[in-house]
Amino acid sequence: xxxxxxxxxxSSCRVMNKWRxxxxxxxxxxxxxxxxxxxxxxxxxxxxxFDIPINTTFERQVVFQNHGTLTVEGxxxxxxxxxxxxxxxxxxxxxxxxxxxxxxxGEPDIGIIYGWRSVDLEIDNYxxxxxxxxxxxxxxxxxxxxxxxxxxxxxISFDGDQTITIQYADGFTLNNAGILSAADGVALFAxxxxxxxxxxSGTISGTSSGALHLHSTYNAAVINSGTITETGYGxxxxxxxxxxAVTNTGLLISSTxxxxxxxxxxxxxxxxxxxxxxGANAVHVKGSxxxxxxxxxxxxxxxxxxxxGTENVSLTFDHGPAASYAYTTSGTWLLNDTSNKPVxxxxxxSAGMGAQEIADKLLFQRTTRLNDSxxxxxxxxxxxxxxxxxxxxxxxxxxxxxxxxxxxPFKAHDLGVSFGKTLRKPFTVMKNKVIELDxxxxxxxxxxxxxxxxxxxxSNGILAGVLAPEVTHWRGGTxxxxxxxxxxxxxxxxxxLNNLDTEIDVTAKYHSFLALAGVEGRWNKALRxxxxxxxxxxxxxxxxxxxGYSESAYFSWDARTLSQAAAHMDAAIVHHVPGxxxxxxxxxxxxxxxxxxxxxxxxxxxxxxVSFSGGNYDDSYGRVQTGASYQMSKVxxxxxxxxxxxxxxxxxKFQGYVGIVVQE
Length: 664
Prior knowledge:
14-stranded parallel β-sheet, single chain, mainly beta, 13-stranded parallel β-sheet, 664 residues, 6% helix
């Protein structure tokens, strides 16, 4: 390995102006002699390396042979008119490596680094590679090279146009985690290049005709998680390219036509694409057989445009089942939604179906909470003429349902209270059959948040009816029954994604009527010592009718009646604490829900009739409960229960309630 440790090498031209005029002739001759001695190229021979140490400036052109390594920790600087390049990997040279942690710059005639027709040249930059000369054509020129790799963690900049050029190159790779910029043009220019891959997690910027100008390339890929900016036309310009694949999770921004795609191209976006001029195109498709996917987390500002005459140009939305959107488009697109929501042509408009698909889950949970709130009363059958109250709180959630793309994640918080009072006059069924009845009242409030606020629905409801704690006895158990009617008010809000740099906030207010009927059996059996067992099984049928309503000018919903059957079975072990009026218990239960009416929602988008019936409408649940009760006096009892529930389709619930029964 060679190390350069000398002082800065000066050319004769830089000292000539110090001599007196009568020595000018002599100085000119000395200038030629000095240049010949010190301004020659430095060659890195086959398999060797050369270091320019820190705090050292080297002013000669470096030329590779094969498999050489140049390490620059100091400065490699080329003065005007002295050399064509700073570093050259000549035609057909193979496997050379440049590692720069210092500075490579200057004003050579053509470029700082030149690798025309080189093979497998690698440039690892942690420092600065730049030129501010109007005479220099490029900073890095890899025209017609193959297998070139640039790993940039520092700065590669140019005051002119085409900082990096890879015309006719094959197999080029750029990994940019630093800064790549052109002050007066294109940061990277690729013309007729094949198999180029550009991965950016840093910043790439240009100023005229594409920060990345991929003209007539074949099978190029741009993967951006950083920022690519262009003050003029095209952050990613794929004009005339074929099979360009763009993946963006970062920021692409330009004045107009931010991403330009030609034939057989793909764009997958989960980041931001921003066209800053009013009415400009964020995405402009100029060729056929091209697919654009706008994914979750996308921000699009600007029109989604497809040129006339293009064929098989698809626009797919992957925002999730709860997302609503209204994107302005031009040209002819094939519209798709990965959650199977209808998308209406014209502009691309779709309504999130999260609240509609979740409605039966909330209905089932309301039925379950009501049944649980009656438990304290139904386990206190010896308290005649009782008054009882059970407040409760629950948290319901679904993170992800891998079984269907139509199911959105959600969280729901519910607060409620059930009241009951034994009626003074029992109900006479037959001459010798009298049934005691409790008047029931349930008040609840629910807040539903679908997919991180894509939709929110707040509801308040009331249910009123009667409970018969002892309808009959069967096989040693007690059968109870209830009938209730209810009314609910809903206030909905949804965000509508769009590409016009405005927020669209859609609200709705609607109501529903609810009817519920159910039976439940309870069997108790004494076990050893202070233990007893309890088996509970029940069946409920509930129906909720939603009135039709509108959400601004975008969506109108037809009336819908959702009907559901819900069954449950729980087995409990109760421990009666010796010498105390307290008992503790634990149980395991199974529940099943099935929707038998109202699975399909019919609605209108911009007055176009559509329908949706996706999602899961049947589910199986398992739950564990534990609780304790205490007989406070001869006429008063208090009980508390907590509940953990999990379903086959990934519903999770945590619930707690406290019940108090007082005998008159």
